């Protein structure tokens, strides 16, 4: 369960709310953008926190995108290769 009332440690005025964020990584030769990534987002300052499981999946998405050597690759969370999402045993 995600706690919905965790205070934001940065602005001390907002709370972390379940939401989505856009994750961008610059690979040097190009940029990979992953949209609609589940994250906790501060409702005041907008800072986002990506959980470990989500970050691990992001790494997989970026690793796959890297193989294409794109100038710009935009992936929507959930649209990634299904092998990424089916790793739980
Ligand atoms: Zn905040």
Summary tags:
alpha+beta; binds zinc ion; 5-stranded mixed beta sheet; disordered C terminus; single chain; 5 strands; 89 residues
Lay out the secondary structure:
Layout: E1 6-7, E2 15-26, E3 31-42, E4 48-49, H1 52-67, E5 72-76, H2 82-85
Parallel strand pairs: 3-5
Antiparallel strand pairs: 1-2, 2-3, 3-4
Bound molecules: zinc ion.
What gross morphology would you assign?
A: elongated
- How do the SSEs run, as a string of H and E? EEEEHEH
What percentage of the residues does DSSP assign to strands (E)? Answer: 35-45%
Q: Report the count of strand segments.
A: 5
The whole-angstrom Rg is 15 Å
Distance between the amino and carboxyl termini: 20 Å
Structural class of the secondary elements? Answer: alpha+beta
List bound small molecules.
zinc ion
Helix share, percent: 10-25%
**Uncertain runs:** 82-89
Helical stretch count? 2
Largest sheet: 5 strands, mixed
The residue-averaged pLDDT reads 87
């Amino acid at each position: 369960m995600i706690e919905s009332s965790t205070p934001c440690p940065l602005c001390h005025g907002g709370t972390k709310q379940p939401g989505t964020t856009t994750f961008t990584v610059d690979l040097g030769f190009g940029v990979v953008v992953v949209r609609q990534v589940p994250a906790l987002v501060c409702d005041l300052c907008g800072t986002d926190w990506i959980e470990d499981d989500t970050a691990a999946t992001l790494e997989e998405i970026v690793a796959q995108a890297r193989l294409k050597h794109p100038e710009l690759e935009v992936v929507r969370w959930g649209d990634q290769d299904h092998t990424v999402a089916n790793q739980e045993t």
